[in-house]
Amino acid sequence: MNLVLIIVSVPAFYLSMDTGNFTKPIVILLIVVINVIVAHMQEERAETH
């Protein structure tokens, strides 16, 4: 799951870099980090319950 998020975020990151807007890649990276944390928490919950 985390690998898919990375694969999806890389093209989006390069596309936003091409436009010259530095706020877009930062927002994308934040979204990816949040998704990874949420996915990790869900995996831990699945293991505990």
Task: Please give the number of β-strands.
Answer: 0
Beta fraction of the residues?
A: under 5%
**How many angstroms separate the termini?**
20 Å
Poorly predicted regions are none
Counting copies of identical and different chains, the oligomeric state is single chain
Tell me the series of helices and strands, N- to C-terminal.
HH
Mean pLDDT: 76
Number of helices: 2
Category by helix and strand content: mainly alpha
Cα gyration radius (Å) = 13 Å
Q: What is the number of independent domains?
A: 1
Keywords: Membrane, Transmembrane, Transmembrane helix
InterPro entries: ATPase_P-typ_TM_dom_sf (IPR023298)
Transmembrane segments: 22-41
Produce a short descriptive summary.
With 49 residues, this protein is mainly α. It is 90% helix and 0% strand.
What's the structural blueprint in terms of helices and strands?
Layout: H1 2-19, H2 23-48
Protein described:
The protein is mainly α. The chain has one domain. 90% of the residues lie in helices and 0% in strands. It contains two helices and no strands. It has helices at residues 2-19, 23-48. Helix 1 runs antiparallel to helix 2. The chain is elongated and about 45 Å long. The two termini are 20 Å apart. The mean pLDDT is 76.
Defining traits:
49 residues, mainly alpha, 2 helices, elongated
